[in-house]
Amino acid sequence: MEPQQAAGKPVRQDRAPGWLDRLRSRGRDTQQAGARPAPGRVAVVTDSAAAVPAAWAAAHADTLAVVPMPVMIDGQMYTEGLDDVETELALALAMGKPVQTSRPAPGLVLRTYRRLAEAGFEEIVSLHLSAKLSGTVDAARWAAEEAPVPVTVVDSATVGLAQGFAVMDAVAAAEAGLPAPAVAEAAARAGDNSIGFVVPSLEQLRKGGRINAAASMFGTLLAVKPLLAVVDGQIVVREKVRTLPRALVRLVALSRERAADLPGGARVAVQYFGNDEQARELVHELAGSAAEPVLCEPLPAVLAAHTGAGVLAVVVAGLPGTAPAGPGGSDSQGSASPAA
Questions:
Q1: Which of 53, 88, 125, 330 is most enclosed, with most CB atoms within 10 A?
Q2: What is the pTM of this model?
């Protein structure tokens, strides 16, 4: 099921072998120990900001539904997964055309819930990007109130593959036959995943309101390349670094430290937009810190619209079934809210 690779593109890994098998084993062990079996089939819903690899999402389409997030480029609306939004976005960023994003319509989320209910799912766990970065969680909560089956909405308090790893774990838990509370618990661990990134320019983040004017001015006037992170669901300046190469060195060092702190080993992912070669270099630098092959994926258009071209991000997450690091080991915490 490997996707066809274009020349010069980073190699992608859909998932590390054994994740689903380990979770299925846990589900069988629980039932053999006398625990009540799962009350019904559980589906997982997320949004395209989770950056779940397309081949992986397709392989698990019976359990996972990804709600696309719209991107407006120079007044025209594009849908990720249906339109060639990546090419259009790259051109728009290079030409300075206006780019905007918005949350998916609550009605679209509700239609997704209804479709899953009609397919026979009895409960849904819906995991979305940080509520401090988007109104997608609010759209999901509204839709959950009208859904024909119980829906647990989870605010991941993060974004990108920090969210995506938790989506993959939640899907694995659902496919292992675990009940909805256990699936929601796996989803809520998104807040334990860390994400750090650097961008050549803060302009797109400023335009989109994702960082404040003071931080943007600081980066522009002083010509620094701040190391950014998602902390408590929002983008913050983690360190002030003078040059992009130094920022990348610090990004690698901090990511290695985070990975070393995780009990049982770490999963690591590199995300990028328009800078494949730099992404491959980061994969090479971080390979020794990961218990599994380093995942390398382009940033979704809905996120690249805010970071701009040239972004490099590193996500570090624990392995499925392992406890998060101790106090201070995570940058943010996900939260779940049940709705019927």
A1: 125
A2: 0.80
